[in-house]
Write a structure and sequence with these properties.
The chain has helices spanning 10-19, 27-44, 69-85, 89-98, 103-107, 141-161; strands at 21-22, 49-54, 57-63, 120-125, 129-137. By secondary structure, the chain is an alpha+beta fold. Strand 4 (120-125) and strand 5 (129-137) form a beta hairpin. It starts with 9 loop residues before the first helix and ends with a helix.
Length: 162
C-alpha cells in the first residue's frame, strides 16, 4: 500500500473501491460521514468544502474556514465524473494518465463540467452499486482523495464494530 504522500497506482485505487462498500447508506449515514469529515478537516485546519450526494440529492454540505465558492464548483465537476464513470474522480484521472494521456484530452467532455481530479469517491452499496458520491475540495487533489478514503475507512470500520 502507498504512503499518504505517495501517488497510488491504478490497482491500489481500484482496491480502495472494492474495499469501501456500504451495506446501506441513509440520510443519517450521510450526516455521520459528513460530520466525521468536518471533524477531521477542523482538526487539520484544512480549508475544504465537503459534499455528499445520493441519487441526485445533496444530503450534506459544509464549507470550512478558508474554503471558497470555487471549491463548490470543483465539487460539482468531480462529482459528475463519479456519477458518469462510477469510479473515484482520482482513479478516472489515473487511468487516463496510465495510458499516457489526460482526461481532458481523451474524454472529450467539457472541463468546465467534469474534472477527473482527486476528491470525489463513489458511495457504493452492496447489491445496488454506486448510488452517490462523497467529495472534498480545497487541498491538492491527492490530499482531497486521501481525506475521503480515510474517512470512509473509519466510518465503515465503526459501522462493522457496532
Amino acid at each position: 500500500m502507498t504512503t499518504p504522500d505517495a501517488t497510488p497506482t491504478v490497482e491500489e485505487l481500484e482496491a480502495q473501491e472494492r474495499r469501501l462498500v456500504f451495506e446501506h447508506f441513509t440520510h443519517d449515514d450521510a450526516w455521520a460521514l459528513g460530520s466525521l469529515l468536518v471533524a477531521t478537516a477542523r482538526e487539520r485546519r484544512a480549508p475544504v468544502a465537503i459534499d455528499i450526494h445520493r441519487a441526485g440529492q445533496q444530503l450534506f454540505h459544509a464549507a470550512l474556514p478558508g474554503s471558497a465558492p470555487d471549491n463548490d464548483a470543483w465539487i460539482a465537476r468531480k462529482r459528475r465524473v463519479v456519477e458518469r464513470y462510477g469510479s473515484a474522480s482520482y482513479l478516472v484521472g489515473a487511468r487516463h494518465r496510465a495510458k499516457g494521456t489526460t482526461f481532458e484530452a481523451s474524454s472529450r467532455l467539457d472541463p468546465d463540467t467534469y474534472a477527473a481530479h482527486g476528491g470525489s469517491f463513489p458511495i457504493t452499496v452492496r447489491g445496488a452499486g454506486v448510488i452517490g458520491a462523497v467529495t472534498v475540495s480545497g487541498l491538492p487533489q491527492l490530499e482531497d482523495h486521501n481525506m475521503v478514503v480515510e474517512a470512509l475507512d473509519r466510518f465503515l470500520a465503526d459501522a462493522q464494530a457496532t
